[in-house]
């Protein structure tokens, strides 16, 4: 009798082990299925993110190209409004030239003065102004000295003659005024005496 009880107990224990082993295998399979689903879900999210990233990069590249083109066109056609305004002056000059004869010299002078005034106005609207140099102290930032000339009428280092006008564009010098600058008469005499010796 004891042996049969032992067998029964062993069988029960073995059946319990078998049930636990089956549950463990089922759990492992469920875990594998869960992991597979999770991996598939993450792979799909990864693909979506990669797709969105590629689209954003493409959009950014398109934006960069578009802004480059717009910037190039802006620089290319920046002077367009100025040119349109100066074309009117050009046409006025052309009309004046077609009406030149000996009888209407005064009318031609008046017409050219009007055209010159119109052109000066257009330049001023754009921020271009003439450098006022005559009688001013020489300043290398605005003036270019072509020569020095002795003068009793002006203090030394003063602009006494403007050979070519200079121009500013807003706060920047476009073209320096080419000028003649005064020099002390005594200084010139001293320099001549030292050269003779």
What's the helix and strand layout?
Blueprint: H1 2-76, H2 80-98, H3 105-125, E1 128-130, E2 143-150, E3 159-164, E4 167-169, E5 172-175, E6 177-183, H4 185-196
Parallel strand pairs: 2-6
Antiparallel strand pairs: 1-4, 3-6, 4-5
Helix pairs in contact: 2-3
For the secondary structure, the number of strands is: 6
CATH topology of the domain at 128-197: Nucleotide Exchange Factor Grpe, Chain A, domain 2
Straight-line N-to-C gap: 153 Å
Average predicted local confidence, pLDDT: 83
**Class inferred from helices and paired strands:** alpha+beta
**Uncertain residue segments:** none
Give a quick account of the main beta sheet: strands, pairing sense, barrel closure: 3 strands, antiparallel
Q: List the total number of helices.
A: 4
**What's the assembly state of these chains?**
single chain
Strand order of the largest sheet: 1-4-5
Overall morphology = elongated
- Helicity level, as a percent range? 55-70%
What's the CATH superfamily of the domain at 128-197, by name?
A: Head domain of nucleotide exchange factor GrpE
Q: Give the CATH architecture of the domain at 128-197.
A: Roll
**What is the C-level CATH assignment of the domain at 128-197?**
Mainly Beta
Strand and helix order: HHHEEEEEEH
Radius of gyration: 47 Å
- Strand fraction equals 15-25%
């Amino acid at each position: 009798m004891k042996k049969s009880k032992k067998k029964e107990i062993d069988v029960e224990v073995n059946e319990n082990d078998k049930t636990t082993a089956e549950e463990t295998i089922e759990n492992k399979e469920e875990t594998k299925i869960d992991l597979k689903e999770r991996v598939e879900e993450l792979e799909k999210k990864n693909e979506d993110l990669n797709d969105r990233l590629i689209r954003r990069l493409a959009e950014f590249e398109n934006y960069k190209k578009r802004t480059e083109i717009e910037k190039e066109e802006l620089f290319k056609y920046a002077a367009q409004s100025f040119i349109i305004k100066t074309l009117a002056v050009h046409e006025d000059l052309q009309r004046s030239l077609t009406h030149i004869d000996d009888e209407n010299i005064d009318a031609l002078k008046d017409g050219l003065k009007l055209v010159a005034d119109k052109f000066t106005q257009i330049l001023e609207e754009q921020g271009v102004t003439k450098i006022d140099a005559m009688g001013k102290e020489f300043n290398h930032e605005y003036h270019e000295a072509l020569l020095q000339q002795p003068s009793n009428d002006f203090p030394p280092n003063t602009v006494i003659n403007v050979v070519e006008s200079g121009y500013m564009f807003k706060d920047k010098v476009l073209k320096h005024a080419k000028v003649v600058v005064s020099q002390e008469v005594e200084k010139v005499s001293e320099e001549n005496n030292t050269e003779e010796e």
